[in-house]
Structure formats: structure tokens, C-alpha cells
Amino acid sequence: MNRIAVRSLVGGLRGARNYNRYISTAVAARPLDGAEFLNRRSGDGFSGFYWMRMMSSAPQTVAPPVGTTSAEKEQKESGSSVGDGGKKGSDSNVVVSNYWGIQRPKIAREDGTEWPWNCFMPWETYRADLSIDLGKHHVPKTFLDRFALRTVKLLRIPTDIFFQRRYGCRAMMLETVAAVPGMVGGMLLHLRSLRKFQQSGGWIKALLEEAENERMHLMTMVELVKPVWYERLLVLIVQGVFFNAFFGLYMISPKLAHRIVGYLEEEAIHSYTEYLKDIDSGKIENVQAPAIAIDYWRLPKDAKLKDVITVIRADEAHHRDVNHFASDIHYEGKELREAPAPLGYH
Length: 346
Ligand SMILES: [Fe+2]
Ligand SMILES: [Fe+2]
What we know:
- By secondary structure, this protein is mostly helical.
- It has 2 domains: 2-55, no CATH class; 143-338, Alternative oxidase (Ferritin).
- The chain has 11 helices and no strands.
- The protein is globular and about 50 Å long.
- The structure holds fe (ii) ion (2 copies).
- Keywords: Electron transport, Iron, Membrane, Metal-binding, Mitochondrion, Mitochondrion inner membrane, Oxidoreductase, Respiratory chain, Transit peptide, Transmembrane, Transmembrane helix, Transport.
């Protein structure tokens, strides 16, 4: 067990050393920061494809399957294999056995261009609801509410001290935490559904969707900010502590757990609002939006960082509402499955 933990720790930190290689395998040995990379790109007329290749995570190249037609084989050999980011060529020696007949069908964007991502599909993309009320606040009414709000305000103190106004870094680190509650809640409701032979009312899916959406926030932020080794170490420690603490809390009081998440989301809205202020004032450069964000939120091709932060903030407002709503259901002495789950937004 200890050996597994040590191996995981070393692997995680080793990942930090290799991080630049993952986000930009096609560039020279010296890593580029986001702004520098983008400046270079805008000046030399790279194609859209090259852009995707540069800014995205390591792709998965798939060998031609048994029974593939010669035309398809030709197309694959010419380098049109699909991976996350649509990378071609250099990884073509990575062979994945396709004996089992597993093959992704051809998927295209609305404009007919090839869909470059394996990590999410076009039908999982959406336009964020920017009309959502960002200023909503749940006024604490009970002791548990006040405890939840006080806990979140206390957690903010070390975060403010550690990150100060480095909002890119702060957002990236906080998204590693924000993606945990939905997964824990969804998992526990899933197990409960199995134990009790009961439907979940859609809440398993709703909470897992939230976790996935938060993870996509993280996948977007890591395209813009590169975590250093001690930040990766911090993520390992915080994840270990937070996952177990939230798991225990959800078992004891889902009412309190959802209320805490609701208040955490309110803080996230505040942080992203400050982030936007720094972009507006020029303290943070309003760089080109990462390709993954453009496809995930169906943003225009010329979208900027400000557009990305704006849609992420709208997502956080949606999570705030969902979690306060879930807590309210419990406050009424009901189970989540008795109220309709907010499915379909993401
Ligand atoms: Fe988030
Ligand atoms: Fe959130």
C-alpha cells in the first residue's frame, strides 16, 4: 500500500517535470508560456490544425482496425488519426490493438471538419447560460448553514494568502478540488440506488455531470497555466484530505455537504469576477482561448481568455444553484430523488 502511495507521489511529481512536453510536443525544447506561444502563433500563419496540435494534451493514436477498408487505411496512414488535439505523425508508432473491434465512428463538427477530441464529444458541448444571476446568495438560516458559510470563509484565508491575485494559478488549483464533490455525491447516490433498489431521480447523472464539467474547467486552465512541482504536491495532499473529508461528510449529512459546495461555488464566482477585473485592467493578458474551450463551450474561433472565464463563471453559478437546491431538498426532510434533478445543462 505504502509502495503504491510512494509510486503515485513520484509519478505525479515526475509529471510536473514532463508537463511542458505534454502540452506542446511539436515545439522546440524550451517551453513557451501561454502568451509567448500565442504571439508566435498569430504571427506565422499556422493552420487551425497546427493550433489544435500545439495547445492540447497528449493524443491517442489508433492503429487501423482489422477489416478497415483500403480507403480508410490510406487516410489513417496519411496521418488523419484522431486524438485529443488531433495530433498526427510523431506518435504513429503507438499501436493500440484493435482485435476487439473497438473503433470510434467518424465524428465531425457542424461545419464538417473532423472532431479532434476523444475526451468529449460534440453532443456533450453546450453554450453556457450567461443570463444566470451571479449575485444570488443563500442567506444562512440555520446553525448548519452558518457553519457551512463560516467553514468556506475560513478555507478562503489560506487560499488568499497562498495565491493572492495569481488568479490563473488559483483557478487551476481550486478546480482540482471543485471536481471532487460531484463525483463523491454521484458515487454515493449510485451505491444507495443499488442497495435500496431505487431510482435516483436523475441526481446521480446530474452530480456526475457537475464533476465532469468541473474537470473540463481544469483541463482548460492547464492549457493556460503550468503547475510547478510543489503545486502538484499540494494537489496530491489536498485531494487526499478533501476527498476523504467530503466522503465522510456526505455520508453523515448530505444537507451540510451540498450547502458547503453551494457556498464554495459562491466563492468561485467571486474569484472568477476578480480574474475578469484583472483581465479588463490589463494585469492579465487577454490571450487567445484554448482550442479545447472553444469546442467545449461552442465559442467563436476568435474567442479570448475573457470569454472562457465568463462561461466558466456562469457554470459555477449553475453549480451554486444546484447544490443549494439539493441542500434545500434535504432541509425539507426529503430525499434528492423526490425532486427533479437539473439534468441537461451540462
Ligand atoms: Fe469550476
Ligand atoms: Fe463549480
